[in-house]
Every structure is written in C-alpha cells, then in structure tokens.
Design goal:
The complex is a heterodimer.
Chain A (H helix, E strand, L loop, with lengths): L3 E4 L2 E4 L5 E11 L4 E6 L6 E5 L3 E2 L7 E14 L9 E7 L4 E3 L3 E5 L1
Parallel strand pairs in A: 2-10
Antiparallel strand pairs in A: 1-3, 3-7, 4-5, 4-8, 5-6, 8-9, 8-10
Chain B lengths: L2 E5 L3 E2 L5 E8 L8 E7 L6 E7 L4 E3 L7 E6 L4 E6 L8 E9 L4 E5 L3 E5 L2
Parallel strand pairs in B: 2-11
Antiparallel strand pairs in B: 1-3, 3-8, 4-5, 4-9, 5-6, 7-8, 9-10, 9-11
Classes of the chains: A mainly beta, B mainly beta.
C-alpha cells in the first residue's frame, strides 16, 4: 500500500500569501494518478487537481500542482478567504486508492 | 451532471451490519465508470473503502476487505455498501463517489451520511 504523508499538518497564513503544501509517497506514484482535494467544514471534498498538475473544471488558476515520483506539491499563489480549508492528496496504484492525512490551511 | 445521494440508518449497534445505498441520477451505473465508498471519522481524514466497476469488478481497501461488500442494482441505478461486525471505530461520515476512469480520481461525491455505531 502506498502511504501518503502530507506536511505541514497546519499552515497558518494570511489572505494574499502563497501556500505550498507537500505530499510525499512511500513509493513512486504515477503522476497521472495523483490528485488534490479541498474540503470545507460540513462539505464533501471537491477535486482541485488531477494528474498531478491538471486543474479540474472550474478551479481558479491560483491553484497549481507539481511534482513527480514521490514528491508532489499543491501551491495556492495568493490565498483568498474561501481557500482556508483542509487539503488532501490522493493516489491510485492500479488496485487501491489512498489519501494523505490532510493539511489544514488556517487564517493567521 | 452526476448526482449521488446516500441513504441508510444513522445508528447501528456494535457487531451488526452497516448497510448504505447510493442512488445515482444523471448517469447510468452500467456505463463506463467506477463507483465507490469513502468514509471520514469525525474530525479525521478520508479513508477509501471500496470501488466497483460497471462490469462488476470490485476493489477493496486491504484493511477492510474481510468485512465489506459492494454491489450494483442496475434496475434502480443504485449501488450499496455492506460493512459487517461494526465497532465504534466504524463511526464516520460515509460518502458515495464516482470515479473518473483513466485519471482515477473521485470527481463526484454525495453529500455524505453520518453513521454512528453505538448500543
């Protein structure tokens, strides 16, 4: 099973700042099968990025994804008030899906 | 646009079986996609449970494999989860999901249903 470790656990930032969230895999992940999700309190998660770097439909371009192999990053270029939430990375290895434990982006 | 809606008991007793149904609208479950279940214990992260392909092929989280079953009901355009021998650790919000074939990510989610395991 591929274990995804996200860091930091919590990121305290102000609106307008840049956020960089890390997702590290216990073994190499096919970047085609790496996705990022945003979850707000009381809501289901929604996909932001798939294929490591492709934005899902309707996702603003301040969200970007990068990385390959075992190291992936979600970047939010300038935080908007609605971006404060929990973010999860997720991978598929051909037979199973796993999630990271999440990074909370909170208002400083 | 795919819409998913979970239904089932909100309270299950320990050692009993948790059963949930996901009703799909806007798309046929016999089409070229995967359907599945994810859960989230209160205040914790997301855990993938299981998926089923339109053909009936199934995929299970190894840690839950011995206790879970997923099935399709094509006549009702629904799919279902059964989790046996539940304990308090199975208390969670359960989401049914649609998986986009190819990139294999979860692109549509139900609103989630809280299932509490308690006597």
């Amino acid at each position: 099973e591929v274990v995804l470790t996200q860091s930091p656990g919590t990121l305290s930032l102000s609106p307008g700042q840049r956020a960089a969230l890390s997702c590290r895999a216990s073994q190499s992940v096919n970047s085609s099968y790496l996705a990022w999700y945003q979850q707000k309190p009381g809501q289901a998660p929604r996909v932001l990025i798939y294929g490591a770097s492709s934005r899902a439909t309707g996702i603003p371009d301040r969200f970007s994804g990068s990385g390959s192999g075992t190291d992936f990053t979600l970047t939010i270029s300038r935080l908007e008030p609605e971006d404060f939430a929990v973010y999860y990375c997720q991978q598929y290895d051909g037979s199973s899906w796993t999630f990271g434990q999440g990074t909370k982006v909170e208002i400083k | 646009q795919v819409q998913l809606h979970e239904s089932g008991p909100g309270l299950v007793k320990p050692s009993e079986t948790l059963s949930l149904t996901c009703t799909v609208s806007g798309y046929s479950i016999t089409s070229y996609y995967y359907w599945g279940w994810i859960r989230q214990p209160p205040g914790k992260g997301l855990e993938w449970i299981e998926n089923i392909y339109h053909s009936g092929s199934t995929y299970y989280n190894p840690s839950l494999r011995s206790r879970v079953t997923i099935s399709l009901d094509t006549s009702k355009n629904q799919f279902s989860l059964q989790l046996t021998s539940v304990t308090a650790a199975d208390t969670a919000v359960y989401y049914c999901v649609h998986i986009l074939t190819g990139p294999f990510y979860f692109d549509y989610w139900g609103q989630g249903t809280l299932v509490t395991v308690s006597s």
